Amino acid sequence: MSETNDVPRRAFLATGAALAAGGSVLGAAAAIPATPNGFKKAVKWYMVGPTGGSVLGKFKLLKELGFDGVELDSPGGPPAKEVLNARDKTGLLVPGLVDSVHWNDHLAHPDPRARARGVRALETALREAKLYGATTVLLVPAVVNKQVSYADAYARSQAEIKKVLPLARDLNVKIAIENVWNNFLLSPLEMARYVDEFASPQVGVHFDVGNIVVYGWPEHWIKALGKRILKLDVKEFSRARADKEGRWKGFDAPLLKGDCDWPAVMKALREIKYVGWGAAEIAAGNKAYLTQVAKDMDRIFSS
Q1: Taking a C-beta distance cutoff of 8 angstroms, is the pair 143, 182 a contact?
Q2: Alpha-carbon gap, residue 265 to 271, rounded angstroms
């Protein structure tokens, strides 16, 4: 989900001597075990915050900490020239982009001008994804509210996405629909139907594990969505915290400290034969914090 709350900072285990000594990127990366079981771990770009300084500095830091990639926003991400330079110098990949306007200019907006802006933004993200070697663009397709009915959200968003499918096909970049708190696609069976109705391999699902916990069980959704899942977002949710402190506070639970049943999630992923990218979508933090995030993600993928 695009909006996230801060989570408590956590103590972290000391990194290896190569990191402590400020060793080279390649040397530090070699000292850290690979992400388990064939998975690849990433973070969202905002999570690095000011840590690492320049674009190249941030890429170097993430590589040193054992991350395999970083997901950027588009339009409006860091300069393309700097991203390409940082990617090529560090080997840190850009597996996917996140549409940066899909909440405001969503594809079911009652104003056709807003929908047109949303289409243009999605086209920009697809082109930038191709430039960076990314394979997906994460999209929130619609928002259901007082002004937008469920039926209108369904029909309008599908119609707008269909306009972009020829470009996505030409670029060989997929549109990955995310499950979020947008009052839309509220069951895995409906989400599967929504995706299947495009009848296109260019549309799939970016499955957010934590977003489901407030009203369901991620492992059930994974089994229902199956091969439609293209990428994962990794975050926690605590039902107890949400009940006591407010719904959004549920996301304050650190990884492995909430109600996501990670062994069940991983079992479901194995059943559908998903092995691929998982991107943390939690609070931003410093090097110590990101070090712990990498360790927690490895524990999750080892479940």
Answers
A1: yes
A2: 10
CA distances from 89 to 5, 86, 93, 184 (A): 32, 5, 11, 41
d(CA 67, CA 294): 7
Cα separation values, 35 from 276, 296, 297, Å: 10, 11, 8
Query: Could you tell me which of 71, 26, 27 has the C-alpha nearest to residue 46?
Result: 71
Closest CA to 129 of 93, 96, 88, 80: 96
Dist CA 93 CA 90 (whole Å): 9
Cross-strand pairs, 74: 99
**For residue 183, what are the β-bridge partners?**
none
Q: How far apart are CA 263 and CA 90, in angstroms?
A: 32
CA–CA separation, 172 vs 189, rounded Å?
26
Check pLDDT > 70 for residue 160. yes
Average of per-residue pLDDT values in the chain:
91
- Supply the pTM of this predicted model: 0.89
DSSP 34-89: PPGGG-EEEEEGGGGTTTTSSHHHHHHHHHHTT--EEEEEESS-S-HHHHHHHHHH
CA-to-CA dists, residue 177 to 142, 185, 214, angstroms: 10, 10, 19
pLDDT of residue 33: 83
What single-letter amino acid sits at 87?
A: R
